[in-house]
């Protein structure tokens, strides 16, 4: 068995005995551990137990190397920590082990003491000159930042794409929802299935009566009361430009009986059900609010690659970018701005930023570029940005 000891860790007496005792029970043993903030005088020792969160392995890093022991054979056909990464090299390794079918056993024991220090790489990340040169050259070539040879999703497996918007997917007033819907239409016209999930919020300005919008566009639709204990919501189903659209009606907001945070929580719960039922091979979303973050976290819970559409390079929303496998903007000039201003690596795809009716046609070059991008999607090993 292999265990890990960083310079800010210390093992507890008896830890190796526990590893030996349970070594034949699973491929990977996961322990809890204690931690203390060395930079805060008098800081108490606290305990982290990852066991209650074992189902979240793909959406958050549950353990440091101090809390892991695994069979040596797990590294026989794969590299250990990916030195191309500037953060979360350990998490990347745990995920690769899980995808390879390794069995994880969460144990009710603590492995040691982790010392939190402000100058650690986790809290003060920095990149090496070699990494900086690699990232720059790969960005210039229009590639992803991490040249991993691991292709977790074969090209032929990209058959279903879900677009999730914090706004209405049907209204023509919002740029990014319109771009997402047009993207689904292009993919669907080439044999890749797509479905959309949204709300009745109109681009951050007002609520819309979705049935009125649908009637004005002549769209067939139905609304049902759906129950997902302990939540309930009015769910609207329709088809817009051949794309099935599920819309959560935020009717509670009109009566003042729920906060925005609570409504977002309800919508996220129904989106999780939507993803669990549809099982897309990729989730496309946009925005930097709490609901968009929930969309990303839910997709990662299912270990689904995430593509985030970016419009203008304003502030650097790291919370949501950290969960993205790919970032997409709509022109080379915007791609340049994102990199130069924020060290954010985007792909430039020719997706219209405003409503565009399919009847206006579809340039072959646009289709080929977009299809090539989506057929090459795989789970990325790290975030699409570097430390600023």
General description of the model:
With 388 residues, the chain is α/β, with parallel strands linked by helices. 30% of the residues lie in helices and 23% in strands. The chain has helices spanning 15-22, 89-99, 129-140, 175-189, 210-217, 252-255, 260-278, 290-301, 318-321, 332-342, 364-375; strands at residues 2-3, 9-11, 28-37, 46-48, 68-70, 104-116, 160-164, 193-199, 201-202, 206-207, 221-228, 231-240, 243-249, 282-286, 306-309, 326-329, 347-348. It has a nine-stranded mixed sheet, sandwiched between helices. Strand 11 and strand 12 (231-240) form a beta hairpin. The longest helix is centred in the C-terminal third of the chain and has 19 residues, at 260-278. The model is unreliable at 151-156 (pLDDT under 50).
Please describe the topology of this protein:
Blueprint lengths: L1 E2 L5 E3 L3 H8 L5 E10 L8 E3 L19 E3 L18 H11 L4 E13 L12 H12 L19 E5 L10 H15 L3 E7 L1 E2 L3 E2 L2 H8 L3 E8 L2 E10 L2 E7 L2 H4 L4 H19 L3 E5 L3 H12 L4 E4 L8 H4 L4 E4 L2 H11 L4 E2 L15 H12 L13
Parallel strand pairs: 3-6, 7-8, 7-14, 8-13, 14-15, 15-16, 16-17
Antiparallel strand pairs: 1-5, 2-6, 3-4, 3-5, 9-10, 11-12, 12-13
């Amino acid at each position: 068995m292999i265990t890990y000891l960083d310079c800010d860790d210390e093992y507890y007496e008896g830890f190796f005995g526990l590893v030996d005792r349970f070594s034949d029970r699973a491929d990977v043993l996961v322990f809890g551990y204690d931690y203390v903030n060395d930079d805060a005088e008098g800081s108490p020792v606290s305990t982290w137990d990852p066991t209650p969160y074992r189902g979240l392995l793909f959406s958050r890093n549950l353990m440091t190397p101090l809390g892991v022991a695994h069979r040596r054979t797990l590294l026989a056909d794969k590299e250990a920590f990916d030195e191309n990464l500037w953060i979360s090299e350990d998490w990347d390794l745990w995920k690769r082990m899980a995808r390879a079918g390794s069995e994880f056993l969460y144990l009710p024991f603590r492995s040691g003491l982790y010392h939190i220090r402000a100058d650690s790489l986790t809290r003060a990340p920095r990149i090496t000159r070699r990494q900086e040169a690699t990232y720059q050259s790969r960005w210039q070539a229009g590639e992803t930042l991490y040249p991993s040879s691991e292709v977790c999703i074969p090209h032929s497996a990209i058959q279903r794409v879900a677009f999730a918007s914090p706004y209405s997917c049907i209204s023509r007033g919002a740029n990014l929802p319109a771009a997402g819907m047009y993207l689904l239409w292009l993919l669907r016209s080439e044999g890749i299935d797509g479905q959309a999930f949204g709300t009745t919020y109109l681009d951050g300005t007002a609520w819309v009566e979705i049935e009125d919008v649908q009637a004005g566009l002549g769209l067939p639709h139905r609304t049902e009361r759906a129950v997902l204990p302990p939540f309930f919501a009015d769910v609207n189903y329709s088809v817009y430009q051949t794309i099935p659209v599920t819309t959560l009606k935020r009717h509670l907001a009109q009566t003042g009986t729920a906060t925005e945070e609570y409504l977002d929580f309800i919508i996220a719960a129904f989106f999780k059900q939507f993803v669990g039922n549809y099982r897309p091979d990729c989730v496309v979303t946009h925005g930097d609010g709490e609901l968009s973050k929930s969309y990303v976290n839910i997709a990662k819970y299912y270990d689904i690659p995430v593509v985030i559409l970016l419009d203008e390079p304003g502030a650097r929303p790291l919370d949501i970018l950290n969960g993205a496998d790919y970032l997409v903007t709509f022109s080379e000039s915007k791609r340049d701005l994102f990199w130069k201003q924020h060290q954010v690596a985007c792909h430039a795809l020719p997706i219209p930023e405003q409503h565009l009716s399919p009847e206006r046609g579809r340039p072959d070059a646009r289709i080929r570029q977009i299809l090539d991008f989506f057929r090459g999607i795989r789970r990325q090993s790290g975030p699409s940005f570097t430390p600023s």
